[in-house]
From TrEMBL:
It holds the Pfam family Abhydrolase_3. Residues 77-275 form the Alpha/beta hydrolase fold-3 domain. The lineage of its organism: Bacteria, Bacillati, Actinomycetota, Actinomycetes, Kitasatosporales. It comes from Streptomyces himalayensis subsp. aureolus. This is Alpha/beta hydrolase. InterPro entries: AB_hydrolase_3 (IPR013094), AB_hydrolase_fold (IPR029058), GDXG_lipolytic_enzyme (IPR050300).
Amino acid sequence: MTAERTATTNSGSSGIQAVLPAVRRSTMATPPDLAARRAAVGTMPRPSPIPGIDISDIRYADVPCVVCTPPEPRGVLVYFHGGGYRLGSAAQFTHFATRLAGATGARVVVVDFRLAPEHPYPAALHDATSVYEQLLTESGVPPIAIGDSAGGGLAAALVVTCIDAEVAVPRGLVLMSPWLDLRCVADSYHSRAATDQLFSHDAARQAADQYLQGHHADDPLASPLIADVAAFPPALLFASTDEVLLDDTVTMASGLARAGVPTTTHFTPGVPHAWPSVHPDRPESAAALDVIARFVRPLATEETT
């Protein structure tokens, strides 16, 4: 990994930032059990990054990112990792990001957004929009947004923010097992409770409380499932038929299709939550990565008008 460097940043107010609520101070201490979980997640064995991909630490708009660049990159993907807004880091998803870069041929920018409860809503969204806006300003071409689990919710919230700010939306949207509704009311929390070993209704409610800290879950910037999606870009969604967040994907896909947004959805049985990024070397993950590549490549190389 190369030494950290800083990309050029804009001065002045941001068009995207102007529509977001102000960043708030946390009202919660970090629970000891969460600190222990973070330590455990940080030491978990992970697949190695694939060779041939340059890995760099770069700050965009003063937000740390891990950037994975293939030879002769075409297009940019901005990637938001999962972890319930309270776990994970960009570095912990480098193994998947290199595979994503290798398969799509695009440069992948993994955003190391701030985590709850130390940094409640909307800190993560401020970080996501700041990085996105700088990438857009530098190239003049909207990146493609991709995220898994809570990162999928963040990617969708980014699109909602762009629409509200009248800023160009991402060229495409890829959501893997997205957590899109922090009200946590979906039937699949109960119907899939016995088959989901990674997430649960109790965990979702706790993570939502730590992220929102009193903010209303029925805000479309927190729960993009309830947003107006008519202006969303082409979307590709994945979900396991065994996971508690299944209904979030089903409902979002239905809403996008009704709004006339080009939408492709893949449901896979017998795989865990967020399997393409969490278990990238599984055959089902390789299949998902191939689908993502076929979705991304035409969008990444599309000429601007």
